[in-house]
Amino acid sequence: MPPLLRWFARHARHLPWRGTLDPYAIWISEVMLQQTQVKTVIPYWERWMRELPSVRALAEAAPERVLKLWEGLGYYSRVRNLQAAAQQIMQRHAGRFPAAFDEILALPGVGRYTAGAIASIAFNQPAPILDGNVVRVLTRLFGIQTNPREKATNAQLWSLAGSLVTQAANSPFAISPSQFPIAGAASVLNQSLMELGALICIPRAAACNRCPVRHHCVASQTGQAEKLPRLGPRVAATRRRFAAFVVQRRGQWLVQQRPGEVINAHLWEFPNAEVSTGTAVAIIAGQTLGGKPRRLIPLTTVQHTITRYRITLEAWSVAWPDRLPLPPRGRWLSLTELDELPLTSAHRRVLNALRATQPSLSRLERRAGL
Question: Catalytic residues, which ones?
């Protein structure tokens, strides 16, 4: 695949994690990039590497600090696994990131793709990778008509990816000069496949005329690029509605921490509950907060998505008697203190809406040094 490697050397994007062969830095980038766009990840990765530049720093960091650095990226099990894996590296590998594929794969939260990416990119091992971009490239390149999500087709794609990276690793051709450090041909081959899928072999309107391997591509030669891969129908989204209650008491607001082993575990949020059809919000507020609110005032509405759920979160400012029971894992905090907590993305937007209604209070807090 020399044309592909030469294309990558000339056209690959300048991404910050490509400026290093540090397996820790590459690992962080690969985990952040799961289900997240590159442009979103870049500032998160740069801040993370400033704050937690090593395996030891991550392993020893306070969990709340780690969650705060991840706030807004979603899929928070990823970051909990990152810290658990860092602690495992400290315990079992004396703080040195393992180089062997099987040892990388044994880390918490690391699957076959991530282990292959780290092993190949950082250590130039001929380990295959198969993410969405590579699936699209390979199905088009080899004209695969069956659904990549099916077990047999998925195994076929892994085999093809393995053959390509092994061929690259064992080939005598020279690698073109690159704009960033590279570990070797296996490293470049895997990155090339991902980059081709991101820049050229895109889901719609693929730029086949600019593709370095178009003369070897079945889909390009037969005009099927737009039809592949054949992923089958999407799972229908489920709509859900929640109400959040923003309760103030003497310049502080009530928040609670989510329990472990749930989505967004250990993050903070305003008290909230799912709204059933036909149930009045005032009744839900009473059930959630343990009493009857004096009044409810609409604050903001947030639309967001978690996996296959399309969620509408309605936030209400709540007037409440002073004797409001404190819920389990609940705290009364100022706006400044709330800013320091790791909040779920939807509730961060609620806090931003709250701040917009409280400019004078924010100035008073700053003057008081709160």
Answer: 30
Residues with Cβ within 8 Å of residue 217, at least 6 apart in sequence = 140, 141, 208, 211, 225
State pLDDT tens for residues 101-118.
999 999 999 999 999 999
Helix, strand, coil shares, percent, the chain, to 5: 50, 15, 35
- φ, ψ for residue 289, nearest 5 deg: -100, -10
| Nearest in space to 143 (alpha carbons), one of 133, 130, 157, 129 | 157
pTM: 0.87
Closest of 343, 193, 333, 192 to residue 251, by C-alpha: 333
pLDDT digits (tens, 9 = 90+) for 253-311: 999 999 887 888 899 999 999 998 778 998 999 889 887 788 899 999 999 888 788 99
CA distances to 35, 66, 109, 279 from 78, in Å? 11, 11, 7, 35
Domains with residue ranges and CATH for the chain: 2-227 (1.10.340.30), 238-368 (3.90.79.10)
**Type of residue found at 227:** K
